[in-house]
Request: fold
Amino acid sequence: MTSQENIDQLRYQPIPAQALFIDGQWQKSSTGEHMDVISPIDGTVLTTISCASKEDADRAVGAARRSFESGVWSQTAPGHRKRVLMKLADLIEAHALELAVLGVRDNGTEISMALKAEPGSAAGTFRYYAEAIDKVYGEIAPTAPGVLGLVHREPLGVVAAIVPWNFPLMIGAWKIAPALAAGNSVVLKPSETASLTLLRLAELASEAGVPDGVFNVLTGTGPIVGEALGLHMDVDALAFTGSGAVGRRLMEYSAQSNLKRVYLELGGKSPNIVFNDVADLAGAAKVSASGIFRNSGQVCVAGSRLLVQQGIAEAFLEKLVDHAGKIRIGDPLDLSNDTGAVSSAAQLEQDLNYIYIAKREGGRLVTGGNRLLEETGGYYLEPTIFDAITPDMTLAQKEVFGPVLAVTTFKNEEDAVRLANESDFGLAAAVWTADLSVAHRMIRAVRAGVIHVNTYGGTDITVPMGGVKQSGNGHDKSLHALNKFCDLKTAWIALG
Reply:
């Protein structure tokens, strides 16, 4: 069991300046440029990371291409890749507390969540795809007797992955693990505000036996590194989690270059729909509070729109406010706190701006709305709830990515569906009802990639994660994710 003493032993360990991981070696940026890593816990500088250039991206993609073409990984037996990735999963578990504390110092997620969602989840993800890859078969087509039709699954080649700052190790594993398991080589770009755990992962992958050049990590900015990968003629697929604006740009880069496949998870404005007949009002309110306020609301599937039926709206909101008020906010490395920091000064400023806009547009501030613990130098924000939010308001349409909840009431099932779908996004949703028929109708009617019923959150690696509409395309997690990183090749054999 993790103790506060174990955490405190790691929280102040010095972190050396970080380099790029290319072709199995730590390498300096070609320009020598670097940037400070600011901890959201207290605003102090933790270390520096290298700012990769276009030339560095060329070197990393070149190393990935050479390793792929050599067959040192791509042509090995699936059983061999399985053993290496299983060892990597073991190493992640062995270093779980180190990775979790390192990540919290970097992005401010509360340690209790970080342990499960970061190294815990990443180890499970690598183990899942390692176990799966020697059990995924090709096909024999139902052809005429004189022909044998075979469908082979082959790795794509070089996969670029760009991952966000909120859960870098977990989301990184969702992309890296199936890509490596299928035999591809990978170039990973972490967010410039949360790179440290993924740089450490590169070391562990090398220790586990992933060959040089098969897994590379480039730190730096999106306009330079992300653009270089998006436009690169030798990248075969690009998997991205982040904002819609960047996702659109990556699709444009694909069109301007080699028409590489682009898979996008672009966030959401997920409706959490509570009907009058919900079985446990208090329990639903508690889970709903967690669904928006955990990790300071910095969760892509966060239930940031509460749609509550008129008959219980007042009682439900009262319980929700009570739960929000009990959330202990502060140092994310203190086990006694429930929620940690907002990830950066820029993100905190954005959150506060959305709160200002909600007030200006006529939303009723029920609770919260203020920065907390400013004297620490860190970035903390009160759980914030706005009532009387109409669909045309900014808070009903834009992804805040902070602990800010928009509450809207609805009359009946038809009204709930209309409000739920009145969004450009379609990543996740939840339905709370005691009526099984209502639940099934809502599952079909609400346009979202993930629908929770009488809960919020709680999926695992066995089911796909992806959205519809402007929440993106393609799926992370489950066996379906392997399809993103494989080509199908048909062999049509005349039997004579």
